[in-house]
Design brief:
- The structure is a single chain.
- By secondary structure, the chain is an alpha+beta fold.
- The protein has 13 helices and ten strands.
- The protein folds into two domains: about 5-100, Roll (PH-domain like); about 135-355, no CATH class.
- About 50% of the residues lie in helices and about 15% in strands.
- Strands 4-3-2-1-7-6-5 form a seven-stranded antiparallel beta sheet, with helices on one face.
- Helix 4 runs antiparallel to helix 13.
- The protein is rod-shaped, with a radius of gyration of 34 Å.
- The protein starts with a strand and ends with a helix.
């Protein structure tokens, strides 16, 4: 071997160096302890990808592993140093070279994976940080702006809105947010919650329901989305990228605008199975707290099923919210402990319900 060089070897165990011999090629660095090269003796191999070269004064140091416990040193003016440095330069360029060497399809897949990772990070961090930073009072103010924007072009039934507000005031729904009800004229069987306390109920779902207990269950479910900030979190997730830009630019008005613009999705928002199950359960707890049998939630789910298009069971996994049958089963199981409990009629709710219908 013609390119063997003498170096000082530090093993990380002793303070002083050991005499060693080194040679290198395109693959990495080879080290053998001792003053003479012995073909029969042990040779240590260190690939360039785990090595790092640094210069300190007139000394060059090559760290042979990532935790820098083993390294060699030699004079910077040694004739082989330039050639060794070139090997390290080639190592640093290898990642870029490998990208350039990839075919278009493989490179496209890599780009998609990287972008997906960035999007996942943004869509996870922004909602988490937003929920920490946005106080309920600010959320209510923000929700009111969303409400005003979403009510443009809608026809409000002011008489039923007044009655529904009285119905809600007769219940214990939230200790954090001012619950405000609005009835919109529409045949659609739907209702949705806006962050901060607004709940919009369509006349279509009011017509479908048969009892005040079902209405109480609906309000309990939608209030759970507000109390647990499900709607706010979903909006923050969908608006995550734009929010980051506005925060960087310190554009407070821009932040409000982006959130309000994304609020339109609340009309058709479908929560995950876990979130819907949680809202159903919180709604049933609200029913019990208001002396209403939790089976009212089951009745509501059955009413929704009657007024919804059938979806084949085999495709139920494609739904972003729980299949109604699953929610009915969950409500039934939740109500088991209350099987023999008595719940007195509420004449106030009954009277308001009669006026609404």
């Amino acid at each position: 071997m013609n390119n063997i060089q003498q170096v000082n070897f530090f093993d990380g165990l002793q303070a002083g160096p050991k005499h060693a011999l080194m040679y290198f090629d395109a693959a990495g660095i080879f080290i053998q302890l001792g003053a003479y090269w012995d073909k029969e003796a042990t040779v240590l191999f260190f690939p360039y990808k785990q090595c790092n070269i640094q210069q300190t004064g007139n000394k060059s140091i090559v760290f042979l592993n990532k935790n820098a416990t083993n390294y060699i040193s030699f004079n910077t003016n040694e004739s082989f140093v330039i050639d060794l440095q070139q090997k390290f330069n080639q190592k640093e360029q290898s990642f870029a070279a490998s990208l350039l060497g990839m075919n278009v399809f493989s490179l496209a897949i890599l780009v998609v994976i990287l972008l997906a990772g960035v999007y996942w990070g943004i869509s996870t961090i922004v909602p988490w940080a937003g929920l920490k930073l946005i106080k309920p009072s600010t959320e209510t103010e923000l929700g009111e702006k969303m409400y005003q924007s979403m009510m443009q072009g809608e026809t409000i039934d002011h008489q039923k809105t007044k009655l529904l507000q009285e119905f809600a005031k007769s219940m214990q729904l939230s200790n954090t947010y001012p619950i405000k009800l609005t009835v919109v004229k529409s045949k659609e069987v739907n209702a949705y919650a806006i962050p901060g306390g607004n709940i919009v109920v369509y006349t279509g779902i009011l017509k479908a329901m048969k009892s005040p207990d079902e209405l109480a269950a609906l309000l309990g479910h939608e209030t759970a989305h507000i109390n647990d900030r499900h709607s706010l979190k979903s909006i923050l997730r969908s608006a995550a990228t734009g929010l980051i830009v506005s925060v960087v630019l310190n554009d407070i008005s821009g932040i409000f605008s982006i959130v309000v613009e994304n609020a339109e999705g609340l009309r058709t928002m479908h929560f995950s199975r876990g979130i819907e199950k949680s809202a159903d359960e919180a709604g049933m707890k609200t029913l019990v707290k208001n002396n209403i049998h939790p089976l009212a939630m089951k009745k509501l789910m059955q009413r929704l099923k009657e007024n919804s298009p059938e979806i084949p069971e085999v495709l139920s996994f494609m739904q972003s919210h729980p299949a109604t049958d699953e929610r009915i089963k969950h409500a039934t199981e939740f109500a088991v402990p209350y099987k023999n409990s008595s719940f007195a009629p509420n004449p106030v709710l009954d009277s308001i319900w009669t006026a609404i219908k």
